[in-house]
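Ex. 9. Protein: Solute-binding protein family 3/N-terminal domain-containing protein.
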Amino acid sequence: MKKIRLAAAALAAGSALILSSCSSGSTEASTADGQLEKTDLTIGVLPLADYAAVYWADEKGLFEKEGLNVTLEPIQGGPIGIQKVAAGELDFAIANTISSSITQAQGAPVTNVAHTASLGEGSGIVFVNPDSPIRTIDDLDGKTLGTNTTRNIGDVTFNNLASSEGKDVAPNFIEVPFPEMVAGVQAGSIEAGYAPEPFSSAARAAGMREVADVTTGPNLNLAASVFVAGNRFVDENPDTTAAFARAIYAAGDDISQNEAEFRSWLPGVAKVPETVAQSMVLPVFASNLDMSKLESVATMLKEQGLVPEDFDIAEHTFTLDRD
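Predicted structure tokens for Solute-binding protein family 3/N-terminal domain-containing protein:
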């Protein structure tokens, strides 16, 4: 039976990632023997389409099939999830590959345990008011461009797209919550906004004009969403980690094969209107781990100077062949 606990209070301002030697840093499942080390798990979640596989796995009995009993605990976002798994306060949590890679490169004892979704084409756009003089990516140079947080998917994928087109464009990225993005552009407090689904559908419905689709070119099917765990947890619970990953991948495969059912089911999880759920661009759900996709993310981050050249994402990623 699914149990959802109320979200915990926000961490105090200035609290840092736990970078101490609370973990060996290894992702090797050295003690795997096929027996689950832990069956009751707490997972940090957000009700977004990108992470819907965890809700699907719970409701469809895929965790139960693996012998797992899960509690889904709402959290404020991926950075909080990373902090909480590093501290051992959650067993698994949502994250995105950009945030997790940057923090891993800085020493956070966190492992990617399952890649859950990639960017669907058309799912992330840069938009402006219909009468804006901004017509192309080039026109965004020096302009204010809203994104939810910097050094994250919005600004990193924009820079990756612009670079691939040989453009030297440097917007002034401003942090704006996604629910406030359309209103911010309409009011003129920002000149352009970035929005992923379902907010990109909301921007289109509000009459906003698309300037760029950051899910195209080098960002097409970019491996964006993952679940993470603390290194110590993975070291001490390799079979449990493998069982969790199998359930997530099974859910991704099931969703991909049942899109109509998924679209009808999504409003109850992601709180999007039924009409939006039927038309929005869906993420590309993963049914297995493709390391080349994660390595592409690492390469992009190296090119932008966000992780060092010697960063090896494979060293921070759990693979099922270790169980």
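Check your answer against this statement. The chain has two domains: 3-118+222-322, 124-219.
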